[in-house]
């Protein structure tokens, strides 16, 4: 808005900013002079408005220098590391050690009060701060897998920097540039205030503050318009930076609250669809569909999945990577990742029917009736708190216990998951325990609220084989002790055979077959299940090359023809 008014100053301002009226000096705001007049009777509003353009030109000059130098140095130092990093480090140290104001005064003297020279100098010296911040942000992501993958696939460093690194650090870049813009306003105002910038009578914000300071005792009002516009502009740069950062960086990570086009009528579904559900089903899910994208871009990721989970049963969700196993379980937990949403479906839990598109209702089940354990047990624990503290926190969320009681219950839970020295483990931090122990802690945390259903998303994949067997054994025992039902996400037929009672095979988001585990292994009905089983390494004689699922499907199609 300030910039808009400044650009339209010739039309908006009622007076020439240089017109003096010695008969109307030091006037307070009036209908004629909106912000009053100064010590020479000039219209203050007109002078403030005409001061906008030179100020913003200066800001732009500083921003261009910082964008090129500060952002460039930060990206290069963080990405290349080594000597580049050391060189940039020395340079930024040097810039930060330079006395900015003394250098600016010298530059203004040499370049005859050139604001351009002052702003370029400020941009060069001021680029040290953004360079350091952007270096740190780049360091944090330069070893991420997708950057490695881009390197391996032959992309040049420049295109990796601009296409893969810059978009990830755009948040800090925007924030740093908004800070620089605000400081550039202060520097310009300071220079004009010292009488070293554009000479009077040209209208500048700093000049206005200088005049206001001179007549502060007899006409204090004069400081309000000139100081106010500077303060408001600085504030506006901060807010603008935050808003731009939110739009550019965080918009994608916000949950989408818009409801998708419903694929089925959920009201009708809730009323009739559970008729077929077995009497002893703890959880029944009907027509669960998950989509991503909007309008014509909408893509179905999980397509009308139905299943029943019986009391004390373990149901395996099996399928290749990307078949929708994880999304199915996350959807029921109300934990879908950003960009995806439930388009339709209903569940019935303990006789209660819940519309799956009702996010609020679904969220209330999490941690109460539904609990979850994850593939990366260590990543699911907060490194800053002890195991005991983290367990006690969850326990106190669900039960009215004091600190000591919650700690005792935490230790009891650790014993339930067969951790021998539970008291001692409770005092440890996550980095002080093994992966297998971390998964036991994850299970203990999931058990704390006595859930009806436990979702286990490949909980043994990240563990070594002997620990895997221990964890599966533990889950089997706990399921029996607690009477829980378990939904077990896996792509490992060995795990299905070991722990599941029934299995549901998913392919590209569609449910192909659900059967008892023995039937699935002995009499798989769907050609895809047959192909998936043939690709199972557990069945293969050593040394034999297994057919891929696609190869088996192609051969079956040929035989059928
Ligand atoms: N946030 C997301 N936005 C868009 N599509 C997604 C998102 N998360 C997952 N998908 C897509 O949804 C589909 C199902 O993903 P899901 O993670 O459920 O598969 P999965 O069977 O669990 O695979 P894996 O065994 O590799 O974990 C995949 O095609 C995946 O690319």
Automatic annotation (TrEMBL):
Pfam families: ABC_tran, BPD_transp_1, oligo_HPY. It is found in: Cell inner membrane; Cell membrane. GO terms for biological process: peptide transport; transmembrane transport. GO terms for molecular function: ATP binding; ATP hydrolysis activity. Residues 285-533 form the ABC transporter domain. Keywords: ATP-binding, Cell membrane, Membrane, Nucleotide-binding, Transmembrane, Transmembrane helix, Transport. SUPFAM superfamilies: MetI-like (SSF161098), P-loop containing nucleoside triphosphate hydrolases (SSF52540). The chain crosses the membrane at residues 56-80, 100-125, 173-199, 219-240. Residues 52-241 form the ABC transmembrane type-1 domain. It is a peripheral membrane protein; Multi-pass membrane protein. GO terms for cellular component: plasma membrane. Belongs to the ABC transporter superfamily. This is Dipeptide/oligopeptide/nickel ABC transporter permease/ATP-binding protein. The lineage of its organism: Bacteria, Pseudomonadati, Pseudomonadota, Betaproteobacteria, Burkholderiales.
């Amino acid at each position: 808005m300030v910039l808009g008014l400044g650009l339209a100053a010739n039309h908006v301002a009622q007076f020439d900013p240089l017109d003096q009226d010695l008969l109307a000096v030091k006037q307070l705001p009036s209908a004629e002079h909106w912000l009053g007049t100064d010590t020479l009777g000039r219209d203050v509003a007109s002078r403030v408005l005409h001061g906008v353009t030179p100020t913003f030109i200066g800001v732009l000059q500083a921003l261009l220098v910082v964008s090129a130098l500060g952002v460039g140095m930060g990206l290069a130092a963080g990405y290349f590391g080594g000597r580049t990093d050391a060189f940039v480090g020395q340079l930024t140290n040097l810039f930060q050690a330079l006395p900015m104001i003394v250098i600016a005064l010298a530059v203004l003297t040499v370049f005859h009060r050139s604001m351009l020279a002052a702003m370029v100098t400020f941009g060069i010296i001021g680029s040290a701060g953004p360079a350091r911040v952007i270096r740190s942000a780049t360091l944090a992501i330069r070893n991420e897998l997708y950057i490695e993958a881009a390197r391996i696939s032959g992309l040049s460093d420049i295109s990796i920097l601009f296409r893969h690194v810059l978009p990830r650090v755009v948040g800090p870049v925007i924030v740093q540039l908004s800070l620089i813009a605000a400081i550039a306003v202060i520097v310009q105002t300071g220079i004009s205030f010292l009488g070293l910038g554009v000479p009077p009578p040209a209208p500048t914000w700093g000049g206005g503050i200088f005049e206001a300071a001179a007549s502060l005792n007899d006409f204090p009002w004069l400081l309000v318009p000139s100081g106010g516009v500077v303060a408001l502009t600085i504030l506006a740069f901060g807010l603008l930076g935050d808003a731009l950062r939110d739009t550019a960086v965080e918009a994608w990570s916000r949950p989408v609250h818009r409801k998708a086009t419903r694929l089925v009528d959920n009201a009708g579904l809730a009323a009739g669809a559970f008729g077929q559900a077995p009497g002893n089903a703890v959880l029944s899910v009907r027509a669960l569909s998950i989509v991503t994208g909007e309008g014509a871009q909408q893509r179905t990721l999980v397509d009308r999945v139905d299943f029943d989970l019986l009391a004390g049963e373990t149901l395996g969700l099996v399928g290749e990577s990307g078949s929708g196993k994880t999304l199915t379980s996350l959807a029921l937990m109300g934990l879908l990742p950003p960009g995806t949403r439930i388009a339709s479906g209903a569940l019935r839990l303990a006789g209660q029917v819940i519309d799956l598109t009702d996010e609020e209702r679904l969220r209330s089940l999490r941690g109460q009736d539904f609990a979850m354990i994850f593939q990366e047990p260590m990543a699911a624990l907060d490194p800053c708190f002890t195991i005991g503290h983290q367990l006690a926190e969850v326990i106190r969320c669900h039960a009215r216990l004091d600190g000591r009681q919650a700690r005792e219950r935490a230790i009891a839970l650790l014993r339930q998951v067969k951790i021998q020295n539970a008291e001692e483990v409770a005092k440890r931090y996550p980095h002080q325990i093994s992966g297998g122990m971390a998964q036991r802690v994850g299970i203990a945390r999931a058990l704390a609220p006595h859930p009806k259903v436990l979702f286990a998303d490949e909980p043994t994949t990240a563990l070594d084989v002997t620990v895997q067997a221990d964890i599966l054994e533990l889950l089997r025992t706990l399921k029996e002790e607690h009477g829980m039902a378990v939904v077990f996400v896996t792509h490992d037929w060995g795990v299905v055979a070991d722990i599941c009672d029934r299995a549901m095979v998913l392919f590209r988001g569609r449910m192909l077959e659900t059967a008892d585990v023995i039937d699935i292994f002995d009499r798989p009905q769907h050609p895809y299940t047959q192909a998936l089983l043939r690709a199972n390494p557990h069945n293969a004689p050593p040394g034999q090359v297994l057919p891929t699922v696609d190869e088996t499907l192609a051969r079956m199609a040929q035989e059928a023809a």
